[in-house]
Each structure stands twice: as C-alpha cells, then as structure tokens.
Design goal:
Oligomer: single chain
Distance between the termini: 22 Å
Strand content: 15-25%
CATH architecture of the largest domain: 3-Layer(aba) Sandwich
Number of domains: 2
Number of helices: 12
Largest sheet: 6 strands, parallel
Helix content: 40-55%
Length: about 270
C-alpha cells in the first residue's frame, strides 16, 4: 500500500462475539476519522473455555480474513486472544497488531494508590496470569488478585445485561474482591464494560474501574500517528461488521451498544481462512 492508501485503509478489529464492540465504540469516539472492519466470531464464542492452540488458530483465520479487507492494523479486542495469541500472530503477520491487555495493565498501574489491583476475566485469561505478569513487570510492588467470571460473557451475549440475575452473579463472583484490599479493578474482558454500571454500583465508588477498551483506542491512536497512518478525513469513518453466525442477533445487540445505526451484518465462513 502507498502512504495515501495506508491512511485511508480500515482498522481490523476482532473478538469472540459482541464484546469487542466496546473497543470499536471507543475507537470511533477517539479516532472518528478512521474506518473500521469488525469481525465477531459468534459461532465459536466464548473463547474463555477454549484451548490456547484453538484460540491461536481462530485468531490467525480471522486476521487472514481481515487482510482481504486491506486493513492497515489489527486490534485484538478480546482479552483471551490477546493473552494467548498475540505473540504468535505478531510473528506470523507483517502489520501492526495490538491487544487489550497491555494498555489495561498500564492504566491500572498508574491508577492504583495502595498497590493492590484486582482483575476479572474469562477462565483462559485468568489461567494465563497475563495481567499479573504485565502489571508486576511494570511495578513489582503491586499485588494482583485475578478472578474468573465465566458466566458474564454468555449472560451479556444472550441479552441479560439488564436482568436481575446479573446482580446475583456479580455478587457471587465479586464479593471476595469487594472484601479485599484492592483499590483498582481491571475489566479484563471486553464484554464486561457492558455491565460496568452494575459492577461499579456493587464495588463502590472508592474502587477505580479500568476499561481497557478506552486505553487500547488511545494506544492505537499513538501507533497510527507514529507510523504516519492516521486517516486525515474529517467526517465519521465507516464501519463494516462481519460474524461467523447469527448475523441478525448480532446486529440487534450491536445497535444497543454502538452510537449509530448498524444497517447490515454479513456472515462469513471463517473456516475457509
């Protein structure tokens, strides 16, 4: 691609399902001129219970698909894939690829006052200890406690984010964190910001809640500027949405999350890639 083509080329964003829309929403807010192509792997959600090998395979398939859209950079808008596949895909593909873990970890390190940080995420993300590793690499004095909350993703995906059952599940998972010494908590799954208000209400105002989606959008902005790949257009960029299954259900949910109307979502046979 020429310099001009790189500037106007879209950013590829992918997630296991709808959670990555929280990252798309932040990119659209912070980099309004950028075009975005999103892929949600709705046929294989959730990733949190899958093996590392499968998550790496899924991620490579999705990136190969996004390359057919001539993307200039990739954002892995999934904590599980960021934790388990980022290094492999960076070794495989010759384009800028960022995940959501490092930006979120950095924000927590900067936010904590008492050096006690909590992380909530999927089983796979918590098992990987990727947040603990990144946080303690940045500041060895910080103590990290990670908690898997596997039911959050399917409840959000099924549209239960405003159902009373969410409050019961939040209490079940987060009571140990609320009773701990943490003063900062990372929402270590891109689905979780969709229930952020309920988590905030439960944890209390004294706990800093870190949303890696915002931090990732800001990191992307810096990378595009450094590589001279910012889109100079002044109008709002376009967004294209693709999924591996259930396009109508995805579109309905996406329209409840995104700040503008999503007119169409296309199904892709991702196994072909």
């Amino acid at each position: 691609m020429s310099i001009d083509e790189k500037e106007t080329a879209p950013i590829g964003v992918f997630d296991s399902g709808v959670g990555g829309l929280t990252v798309v929403r932040e990119i659209a807010r912070q980099l309004p001129g950028e075009n975005i192509v999103y892929f949600g792997d709705t046929a294989r959600v959730p990733y949190g219970s899958k093996s590392k090998d499968n998550i790496i395979r899924f991620s490579k398939q999705i990136i190969r698909f996004l390359q057919t859209k001539n993307v200039k950079a990739i954002v892995i808008a999934c904590n599980t894939a960021s934790a388990l596949a980022l290094d492999d895909v960076r070794d495989t593909f010759d384009l800028p690829i960022i995940g959501v873990v490092v930006p979120g970890a950095r924000a927590a390190v900067e936010a904590t006052i008492n050096h006690h940080v909590g992380v909530v995420g999927t089983d796979a993300t918590v098992r990987s200890k990727v947040y603990t590793t990144n946080i303690t690499d940045m500041n060895p004095e910080i103590s990290v406690v990670e908690k898997a909350c596997p039911l959050f993703v399917p409840l959000v995906e099924e549209g239960f984010k405003d159902h009373p059952v969410i409050e019961e599940i939040i209490d079940y998972y987060l009571r140990p964190l609320r009773e701990s010494e943490i003063d900062t908590m990372i929402l270590g799954c891109t689905h979780y910001p969709l229930i952020r208000s309920k988590i905030r209400e439960y944890m209390g105002e004294e706990i800093q809640i870190v949303n890696p989606a915002y931090e990732t959008a800001m990191d992307l902005k810096k990378i595009l500027k450094r590589l001279h790949m910012e889109n100079p257009q002044s109008e709002q960029g376009y967004c294209e949405f693709y999924v591996s299954d259930a396009a109508d259900k995805f579109k309905q949910f996406a329209n409840s999350v995104m700040p503008y109307d999503i007119s169409s979502t296309k199904v892709i046979n991702i196994e072909e890639f």
